[in-house]
Write a structure and sequence with these properties.
heterodimer; A: Rossmann fold; 13% strand; B: four-stranded parallel β-sheet; 8 strands; globular
């Protein structure tokens, strides 16, 4: 599919794409580091939001700011800034998520000379009225801050337009996920990964069309797909997934990834923003209701139950947890989630990963062993 | 040159025994709370304890427990137990040892008394949120999360409103569990006592301005226990008054904390609990006294935001703006202030694998210090409780090399002084 090839180019070379987009559109380029970033507000301020995932290249500049026990995502993002590979950037947004991103914000502010710098200190708990009010307050403050910084007025109309766009994107990706869950062979997992990742980088207006065309093409193709009961349906879970190579390894071993719980995957697109009055309160509503990241608190077992529910809904045979080394919030959740999985009789494989991944053979063997068991 | 027993005895801080007695009684009270119809709350070290004291609830600090586990060298065993439970060995060693300890009632005091409630304030880290979630599931007790938005560069009016509302929610939470109302007058009294205790603790730490310093950071790590665990009680005031008098007497008599104080150092981050003695001897051998640290002053560092007469109202800001809940640049500013205040010759940073929010940013603080004050800095890679992350020979060599640099600098600066 040409679309996937186009997306792959963007994912492989995001900065050359973004630089061109900046020249062509005249939009300000605003980077962010966490899926709780309200893209809608950035878009309503006339800027282009894109997510930074950290570099795959050798990290060395970040070593003089972050110790070895910091995760490779945070180190990799800092490396991008220090290496000046992204000096076309007009600004960075740091939502409060984990301790490491919190300090990344400070270190960035102290060391990166280009672009504006905005903190978005979101609530950590989401389940009380005062926290929900604070979420709205802090998003309104952010909207004022970014408007002042970019010298534009962030209007309700612009916000509503941005919400329509991001909702369309989220809905399309979800539809593609759903369709592919019914027909896992419709597209390889790595292609879907590429598509979703490109969605966090690309110009959002053309993206709406690109996704809906992709969905139509897939629908047309889906009719020809025969159901294959031998495929072992698997769910992936964790924080960021930076490893497209994992999908073909699982597929070669007879599995198919049919859903995920990643912040670069399903957590990014699930839950739409309700349309209506007070758009910022609606954006806040989505951030409160969406599937939670373990760095935030809604209740004591919501994530565990969510993953169990996913397994049932998706008729999956097991869950593979890909946990980034030094990612504390996920590492703390894992043992109790594992208990829930055990009680529900769901097989689990835990892979603690880092950049770069362990040797392919080693991973393949683990996937094969797991898939044989499920 | 080894010290005679007489000299050692002169140097020993006499209040220590009283402190041990108070802590023993405190833990006995906590462990027998049930029999005495008292409720127990587990609370984070930076959490607002005053409302608990006012409600006659016994506060228990898993972090203080973690420190005891570390100091009694029981950390590795408990951390390993947590790892077999599935907790990654990269997680905070306080959390790991507490989580496993709860299941086996191990450690130096046979485990903490079971909580009736958990109070988690995230002004020190995001780790406590995850740790307290684990314990709330394990003990199946109510959890109150006191969410203090991080103050990168400011304490916003939005955050102020949010935190102030949570104080009311917190009190309501306690009233519901206890089935009775909070006595507002008592609360005011506790607030005053807490403030008084913080002032006294700061005064104790300030005696280190004297040369020689009557106490070291290692002493402060020990005497800290009361301002953490019993803040807001009269016995904290009584104790620190005694300690302060003792320190003042030492200053008057010219008794230093180490036999010969030639060099003064500042410490950053949590102590390395299982190597306190070794480290203090190691530095003392070089005639270096760690006169101050960024850690123990965190329990009195945000006093400027407290209004004694309106404790509950001003508490919101004070608890939001403690040392670990502010930006790295502001932390660096406070470090520079301490360097000047205590007139130190070098800066020792413990890069603590267990504490990401305390440790990430240290390299930048070090650069700021080197640039602004030009004093030598030493970073030690270790962990506060898990001894497996401590390499004695490597650290010993690095301390020797660091002290050589400090000595040379001191000599050359003296030569410059005589020449001019």
């Amino acid at each position: 599919m040409d679309t996937i090839a186009e997306c792959r180019k963007i994912v492989d070379q995001p900065y050359s794409y973004l630089q061109k987009l900046k020249e062509k559109s005249g939009k300000r380029m605003v980077g962010y580091v966490c899926s709780y970033t309200p893209e809608e507000i950035i878009m309503a301020a006339g800027a282009h939001p894109f997510r930074l995932f950290g570099t795959k290249q050798n990290i060395h500049l970040a070593d003089s700011h972050l110790q070895s026990y910091c995760c490779s995502v945070v180190r990799g993002i800092l490396e991008e800034g220090l290496s000046r590979r992204i000096d076309f950037l007009d600004g960075m947004i740091f939502p409060h998520s984990c301790d490491s991103i919190q300090r990344l914000s400070d270190i960035w502010r102290m060391n990166i000379p280009f672009g504006f710098h905005l903190d978005l200190v979101l609530p950590v708990k989401l389940n009380t009225l005062s926290a929900q009010d604070y979420m709205i307050d802090v998003l309104k403050k952010f909207s004022t801050d970014i408007g002042r910084t970019l010298q534009v007025e962030v209007t309700d109309n612009a916000l509503r337009k941005a919400i329509t766009t991001t909702n369309a994107i989220r809905q399309s990706i979800k539809d593609i996920y759903d369709l592919r869950s019914q027909h896992p062979r419709l597209m390889p997992g790595s292609d879907l990964y590429t598509l979703v990742r490109a969605s966090m980088i690309m110009d959002r207006e053309p993206l709406v069309d690109l996704l809906s065309e992709t969905l139509s093409e897939l629908k047309a193709k889906a009719g020809e797909e025969k159901a294959d009961a031998s495929l072992k349906r698997i769910i992936l879970a964790g924080g960021i997934c930076n490893h497209p190579d994992i999908y073909p390894m699982i597929e070669d071993a007879g599995g198919a990834v049919v859903w995920d719980d990643f912040c670069t995957g399903a957590r990014y697109f699930t839950e739409l923003v309700q349309e209506g009055a007070d758009p910022i309160a609606r954006i806040a509503g989505r951030l409160i209701n969406r599937v939670v990241c373990p760095a935030k608190h809604t209740d004591l077992d919501g994530r565990a139950k969510h993953i169990v529910r996913l397994v049932k809904e998706e008729n999956a045979r097991g869950v593979i947890f890909l946990l980034f080394k030094f990612c504390d919030p996920h590492a703390f959740d894992y043992p109790d989630i594992k208990k829930y999985m055990d009680e529900a009789g769901i097989p689990v494989l835990l892979l603690e990963i880092d950049d770069p991944l362990p040797a392919e053979g080693q991973l393949k063997t683990r996937f094969e062993a797991f898939l044989e068991m499920v | 040159m080894s010290e005679t027993n007489l000299e050692k005895d002169k140097r020993k801080i006499k209040s220590e025994k009283k402190m041990r007695d108070i802590m023993t009684t405190y833990y006995i009270d906590a462990k027998t709370a049930r029999q005495n119809n008292k409720k127990v709350a587990w609370i984070t070290s930076g959490g607002p304890v005053e409302p608990l004291i006012a409600m006659d609830i016994i506060p228990v600090y898993p972090e203080n427990h973690g420190a005891m586990i570390g100091a009694s060298k029981m950390g590795v065993d408990l951390c390993e137990k947590a790892e077999t439970m599935g907790y990654s060995n990269d997680l905070c060693s306080y959390a790991r040892s507490d989580i496993s300890c709860a299941t086996v009632n191990g450690g130096p005091i046979g485990g903490l008394p079971e909580p009736d409630m958990l109070v988690c304030c995230n002004n020190i880290c995001g780790t406590v949120l995850k740790w307290y979630e684990v314990q709330a599931r394990y003990f199946n007790v109510p959890l109150f999360i006191f969410d203090t938005p991080f103050c990168h560069t400011e304490y916003t009016k939005e955050a102020k409103r949010y935190v102030e509302r949570q104080i009311n929610e917190y009190i309501l939470f306690l009233e519901n569990i206890c089935g009775r109302k909070m006595d507002q007058d008592h609360m005011k009294e506790v607030g005053k006592i807490s403030f008084e205790g913080q002032k006294l603790w700061q005064e104790v730490l300030d005696t280190a301005i004297n040369k020689p310093s009557p106490l070291t950071a290692f002493d402060a790590f020990f005497h800290l226990a009361l301002i953490v665990t019993l803040r807001g009680t009269q016995q904290t005031i009584d104790y620190y008054q005694g300690l302060l008098a003792e320190m003042k007497e030492r200053v008057r008599a010219g008794i230093g904390a180490i036999p010969q104080e030639k060099y003064r150092l500042l410490w950053d981050n949590l102590p390395i609990w299982y190597r306190m003695k070794w480290l203090s001897q190691k530095f003392a051998e070089h005639n270096a006294c760690l006169v101050a640290d960024t850690y123990t002053s965190a329990w009195c560092g945000s006093m400027k935001y407290i209004d004694e007469s309106k404790f509950l109202d001003s508490m919101a800001e004070a608890y939001s703006r403690i040392y670990l809940n502010i930006g790295v640049d502001e932390m660096a500013k406070m470090v520079i202030e301490m360097i000047d205040k205590y007139d130190v010759d070098g800066f020792v940073l413990h890069s603590n694998r267990s504490c990401k929010p305390y440790s990430f940013g240290q390299l930048d603080i070090q650069r700021v210090v080197e640039k602004e004050r030009g004093i030598p800095c030493l970073m030690i890679e270790a962990d506060m409780v898990d001894e497996r992350s401590f390499s004695e020979s490597q650290i010993s060599t690095r301390i020797d090399a660091f002290m050589e640099i400090i000595k040379e600098r001191k000599i050359s600066s003296r030569v410059r002084e005589t020449e001019s």
